Amino acid sequence: MPVTTGIINASSFKLHTGAGSPVVVADQVEVSIEASHELRDITTKDSGAFEESAEGLRSVNLNASLMYKLDSANGVDELITAFLGRTQLDCEVKTSNVDDPELVCDAHIYSLSISAGVEESVQCDVQLGATGAVTFN
After folding, report:
1. What is the DSSP letter of 20?
2. What is the Cα gyration radius of the chain?
């Protein structure tokens, strides 16, 4: 199958987690990737009153919102277990097209929240922080 052309349908862009062979996280509503680069200040008196910087630490966070269904495989219950067990997860964010590039990393869950409003669906928001190298291929 050739690489997806045009705008990607967000329904096919999903977070996958697991140990060794990640599988799609069930019941996703939204997924996002945040990448940042913390620059180091190297400004001196010789900088002509302009800030100078050099490369520094990079970080990647993965965020997902999903519906809470008790009978889902690889859903909220598995994420809670991974969080409580301090389990490092193998993560991928990719489309359903195997030829499309994917973001791959190991990550720890650093935030997990469950919300339940009056007469609303129960939802879970999870945030994972990448550890070590992150690849996009």
Report:
1. S
2. 18
Phi and psi for 2 in degrees, rounded to 5? -70, 165
Q: Which two tokens stand for residue 79?
A: 């994420």
Report the C-alpha gap between 31 and 8 in whole angstroms: 13
- Please name the residue that has the structure tokens 């990647």: 60
- C-alpha 131: how far from its chain's center? 12
CA distance 100 to 79: 26
Three-state secondary-structure class, residue 79? helix
Q: In angstroms, how far is the first alpha carbon of the chain from the final one? A: 16
Spell out the alpha helix ranges (H) of the chain. Answer: 76-84
| Prediction pTM value | 0.88
Chunked in runs of 10, what are the mean pLDDT values of the chain (137 residues)? Answer: 87 90 93 97 96 96 96 92 96 94 96 96 97 95
Say whether 85 sits in a helix, a strand or coil. coil
Question: d(Cα 76, Cα 120) in Å, to the nearest integer?
Answer: 17
